[in-house]
């Protein structure tokens, strides 16, 4: 059986068609990577909403029941090869009320699946299950060929024609009612390394924090107390082996100028200008797996962060399986680092450690690139 839909184009849907578009206008947006929405009607009623933003490698599908409530949603991401993989599927079999049963399945691009069941919605317990499984994929498709998306959403065979006329309410709005999910973006990192700059928490000053010797060129950013306990892989992007200076950015607040907090730490590879920033990733991680505002970061449980070479990290872990004493002894011996100096160099320059901003949490590292695509620096952002 084939379900017949008619398509209306717009900025979006919010109980009414927001800023209608012609098919030609929507097709131009599709080609230019500008977000737009497609509303698929069955029997004159909205049943499926498709959100498209190729600039964000994103396609979203929302399925509505006869009563207008959501019954399913899909989050798809376009890979570098052009096909789309299903990052997340959410289902509300009885509609999306707060106490309604729900199920969510999330896949990573590398092939890891997580299932979350909430049989009583927000008001009950939940269960999770993980297993290795490649995500469902959709081949590249031209504008208007929505049938494979509809099939993936569980709607079977579908035929779609345009709906130049419909009886739905129409509104004009300055902003569309949706935005594509975008991972966390770096703040103005250059400002964090500008002496005297004013940021939210206070005024910036800089402290040269020695150098880190990267014998393998593979950088690890991590809580040094996790050595010997939690494996911490290096970042996938490498640099030439060598010794690289580290600068600690501190911020002094007006009410406590005697207690600066570390805002960021920068490992400098070259002195060329940074023209773009990318999130530092470990092998197996992809920004396509991230939801809106999310990032991959290193965890901190001791209030400390550090830069070190992967070879040193491994050797220290092998030397002390109960946690590394090297960083701790030096930290305690140089107690002033927790006050004014705000850093410590350990293992003869193999590691630099510093207090981690507000303390425990998760912190991203950003890689700065020059206009030739070469690495300029790594910046661990303490998110003050």
Describe the structure.
With 384 residues, the chain is mainly beta. It has 2 domains: 2-171, no CATH class; 189-381, no CATH class. It has 5 helices and 25 strands. It has helices spanning 23-32, 147-152, 189-192, 310-319, 325-333, and strands at residues 2-13, 17-21, 36-42, 45-53, 58-64, 70-78, 84-91, 102-107, 112-118, 127-132, 137-138, 157-162, 170-171, 203-214, 219-222, 242-252, 261-268, 276-279, 298-300, 304-309, 344-346, 351-355, 361-363, 365-369, 375-381. Strands 1, 2, 3, 4, 5, 6, 7, 8, 9, 10, 11, 12 and 13 form a 13-stranded mixed β-sheet that branches. The chain has a 6-stranded antiparallel β-sheet with strand order 14-16-17-25-24-18. A 4-stranded antiparallel β-sheet has the order 15-20-22-21. Strand 3 (36-42) and strand 4 form a beta hairpin. The longest helix is centred in the N-terminal third of the chain and has 10 residues, at 23-32.
